[in-house]
Specification:
InterPro entries: Cyt_c/ubiquinol_Oxase_su3 (IPR024791), Cyt_c_oxidase-like_su3 (IPR000298), Cyt_c_oxidase_su3-like_sf (IPR035973), Cyt_c_oxidase_su3_a-hlx (IPR013833)
Number of strands: 0
Shape: elongated
Keywords: Cell membrane, Membrane, Transmembrane, Transmembrane helix
Protein name: Cytochrome oxidase subunit III
Main location: membrane
Family: Belongs to the cytochrome c oxidase subunit 3 family.
């Protein structure tokens, strides 16, 4: 074979990037976030597997108790919050700090509403005869509390990051010079990307957990 006809040996022909090459080009913070999300996924997979095992071994038929309606409402709220946070990068690219602040504020509010609805969902579980502790408690019921509570904890971590970023946006929006510096800083663009990626991940994670609850509860 003539090496001159082999495109792989020709100078200047772009080579397809390998997986490791693409990973090396990722920003360090984004790589750390991906590793954190992987660890969270593994943890919840183990918990869901343990919940399914406990649910199957309990012998209690599915549909014996109604799934808390607040869990359904909280799912809708979280999906809406994922849409609002998805607008943040577009507004940042348009240099619209005022709208960006409202977008982040709405997402923050929806995050708190989701957490509140989860608490109401736990109260509803107690009313339906599925307490966390006591003689009537079961291991499968305890897993529902544990899994949903851990998800709320991870959501609160995102809320804390969101709150810090929101305060920075509001501060920058008060002054034209600060606003210009904020918009031109690539670090803030990366922060928005990290926040959006994590928030969408938490959203998809809850939808998957909710689907498991619907099927196994």
């Amino acid at each position: 074979m003539n090496p001159e006809n082999d495109h792989r040996n020709q100078v200047g022909i772009p080579q397809s990037a390998t997986t490791f090459a693409r990973m090396e080009r990722l920003p360090p913070l984004l790589m750390v976030l991906y590793l954190v999300m992987l660890a969270i996924t593994v943890m919840f997979v183990i918990l869901v597997a343990a919940y399914i095992n406990a649910r199957m071994r309990s012998g209690v038929p599915t549909g014996l108790h109604a799934l808390p309606r607040y869990f359904s409402l909280s799912t809708i709220v979280l999906v809406v919050s994922s849409y609002t946070i998805g607008q943040a990068r577009r507004l940042y690219a348009q240099d619209d700090l005022a709208s960006l602040g409202r977008c982040l504020g709405a997402t923050l509010l929806l995050g708190f509403v989701f957490a509140g609805l989860q608490v109401l969902g736990w109260r509803e579980l107690v009313l339906y005869g599925v307490p966390f502790q006591g003689a009537a408690s079961t291991s499968s019921g305890q897993f529902i509390y544990l899994i949903s509570a851990l998800h709320v904890v991870h959501l609160l971590a995102g809320i804390l990051f969101l709150l810090v970023l929101l305060l920075r946006v509001l501060q920058a929006d008060r002054d034209a010079v600060r606003g210009l510096v904020f918009i031109r800083n690539p670090y803030h663009r990366r922060q928005l990307r990290l926040l959006g990626t994590y928030w969408h991940f938490i959203d998809v994670l809850w939808v998957a957990l909710f689907a498991v609850f619907l099927f196994m509860y």
